[in-house]
Design a protein that fits this description.
Layout lengths: L1 E3 L2 E2 L8 H24 L5 H29 L1 H9 L1 H6 L11 E5 L4 E6 L8 H4 L4 H4 L1 H9 L1 H7 L9 E6 L5 E5 L11 H5 L4 H5 L13
């Protein structure tokens, strides 16, 4: 289900968050316990762990999603498939599995901008975006994204025309969303590899836009 800029629409189904959130909390506790043991015994430094987490949050995970977006930009047939059946289209590129079983792609246009949130916990499409950033899991983002999406975008440095609608999509344990950002102008004829370099994690959540192609290698 989703909410418009005017406010949230009533949810028409059970999110199923309780079970999912409990499972994730249990895993998180195990990870923290293992991390504490490794640090205590001197096997790994806290800074090294932070670097690994940062890599998966901002580089390895989102690169999968960037390849999906780049293919959609370059291949109209794939783009239509992604819009019609995102789970299958994404799986065709080798990305799938837990936290990405039921994907929906929502496309940004000059008339409408999409923003993704999970209002009850932190449901997130791991196979295409990696680990969720800390701000995505924060109570402030989860509440403000629905109440004041335009203000949230401003906090991220994104200012949209007043006439452009903002649609907020609420992820659940059953459905995860991927935003298809608008392709930047001036990238005609670019390879998929070059296009993927313009796609950021935040642009696939909706809190950012694709990078400016000026100066980027085509």
């Amino acid at each position: 289900m989703h909410a418009s800029e005017d406010g949230p629409h009533p949810h028409g189904h059970d999110h199923g968050h309780d079970h999912e959130h409990s499972a994730l909390s249990g895993n998180a506790l195990r990870v923290r316990a293992l991390e504490s043991i490794l640090v205590e015994k001197g096997y790994v430094a806290p800074d090294a762990l932070d670097a690994i987490i940062e890599t998966y949050e901002t580089r390895i995970g989102p690169r999968n999603g960037a390849r999906v977006v780049a293919r959609a930009w370059a291949d109209p047939a794939f783009r239509e498939w992604l819009r019609r059946d995102a789970t299958a289209a994404i799986a065709s590129l080798g990305y799938g599995g837990r936290q990405g079983e039921h994907m929906v792609a929502v496309e940004n246009t000059p008339e409408e901008h999409n923003l993704v949130v999970c209002t009850l916990c932190s449901c997130y499409p791991w196979p295409v975006l990696g680990l969720p950033p800390a701000w995505y899991k924060s109570a402030a983002y989860r509440s403000r994204a629905v109440i004041d999406p335009r203000g949230v975008l401003a906090d991220f440095g994104v200012t949209l025309p007043e006439a452009r609608r903002i649609r907020v999509w609420d992820s659940t344990a059953e459905i995860r969303y991927l935003v298809l950002p608008m392709r930047p102008a001036g990238t005609e004829g670019w390879s998929e590899e070059a296009l993927a370099e313009l796609v950021t994690r935040d642009s696939m959540i909706g809190t950012g836009l694709a990078r400016d192609p000026a100066g980027a290698p085509a």
